[in-house]
What we know:
Elements: H1 3-13, E1 17-19, E2 25-26, E3 32-33, E4 35-37, H2 46-63, E5 69-73, H3 77-88, E6 92-95, E7 108-109, E8 118-121, H4 129-139
Parallel strand pairs: 5-6, 5-8
Antiparallel strand pairs: 1-4, 2-3, 6-7
Helix pairs in contact: 1-2, 2-3
Amino acid sequence: MSYNCEIANLLLKLNAVKLNPGSPFTYSSGIQSPIYCDNRVTISHPKERSIIIGAFIKEIQSSSCDFDYVAGTATAGIPHAAWIAHELKKPLLYVRSSPKKHGKGNIIEGDTSLGHSSILIEDLVSGGGSAVSAANALRE
C-alpha cells in the first residue's frame, strides 16, 4: 500500500475527516466545502504522526531539494515542521500569518539570516493563500 493510502486510512481511523453536506465547513480561504480534514488531531497520536512525518521525509529526500531551514506555517504547520526539522537535523523557523503586534513585530520566528533557503511545511492546503503568503514572507 502506498503511504498516501496509508495516511488516508489513518486519518479516517482517527476521525480527522469530517463530512457535513448540509452545513458546509468554511476554510480560512473562504471556500466552503462539505469535507473537512482536521490534521491537528494527528499531533496527539505518536504512532500515526510518525507515519505522516516519515512520508514527508521520503518526499523531501526524493525531491533532491537543497535547503537550509525547515519552516512551518502558523499554527498547524509548526508541529509537523518541528518533527521534520528534528529528523533532518535542520534548523526550524515558523512563519506567522501576520507580524506580531508586540515585541520585535516578527513575522518569522527563529534564528534567520539572509541568503538561506527554506522548505515550507503546511499541514493542509485548500486554496494555497496562506502557503503563498508564508513563502513570500520567507523570500522577503
